[in-house]
Specification:
33% of the residues lie in helices and 25% in strands. The protein is of the alpha/beta class and 108 residues long. The chain has a domain of 72 residues. A four-stranded mixed β-sheet has the order 1-2-3-4. Strand 1 and strand 2 form a beta hairpin. Helix 1 packs parallel to helix 2. It is globular, with a radius of gyration of 14 Å.
Length: 108
């Protein structure tokens, strides 16, 4: 497993295969302070990278022979997330559902 962070927008932080689910991890260590807009932008870029990874089936290189019917993006925040993040996620929910992608998040 390779561990990166939200500051690497073009990289998958970590991936794990379940029976029929691929779980992708985003590790977010940034604070939600005066840079909220920049933080949201970085998070959106990172999520877009993960969606492209799923849509292009790039995961097949790491997990050959696996057939995934569900995808979950888990975001682990080091600091309590901002309300703007929840709004952004709610806007994307319909599009994510079409792709069988769920997003879960927690403060670790």
């Amino acid at each position: 497993m390779i561990k990166l962070s939200i500051t690497d927008p073009d990289k998958i932080d970590a991936a794990a295969a379940g029976e029929d689910e691929l779980v992708l991890l985003i590790s977010d260590h940034l604070r939600w302070d005066s840079y909220q807009a920049a933080h949201l932008s970085m998070l959106q870029d990172k999520l877009n990278t993960y969606i492209k990874y799923i849509d292009s089936k790039s995961y097949m290189k790491q997990f050959p022979g696996n057939t995934f019917t569900k995808f979950r993006i888990q975001i682990d925040f080091l600091h309590k997330y901002d309300g703007g993040f929840v709004k952004m996620l709610n806007l994307a929910k319909t599009e994510l559902n079409k792709r069988n992608i769920t997003v879960t998040y927690s403060v670790v």
